[in-house]
Amino acid sequence: MSEQKTAVTALLPTDEARDLVLRAAAQGVATPEWLGYLILLSAYGPLHPEVLAFERRAKLGQDGTQQG
Asked: Suppose 31 and one of 24, 49, 54, 61 were both cysteines; which one would form an S-S bond, judging by CB atoms 3.0 to 4.6 Å apart?
C-alpha cells in the first residue's frame, strides 16, 4: 500500500486480535498492513486500487517467492 497513510485505532476482542496478528504473520506482512488491506477490502470491495496492488504483489507462501 502506498501514498500518505493515517493511523486508525480499532477495538477488537483479544482472541480475534491475536488471530489477525497470526494471519498477518502467515502472509508475511506487517500487521498494520494486513489490517489496512482487510479494512479496504471490506469497505470498498476487491476492485479498490490498494486492494488490487496488495493482492498482486508477491507474499510469503505464494509460488515464485522462494529463492534458491
From this structure: 24
Interatomic CA distance for residues 8 and 3, integer angstroms:
16
Residue 19, all three cell numbers:
488471530
pLDDT in tens, 20-60: 999 999 888 999 999 999 999 999 999 999 999 999 986 66
pTM for this one? 0.76
Helix 31-44 × helix 14-27 angle, to 10°: 100
Q: Rounded CA gap, 39 and 24, in Å?
A: 13
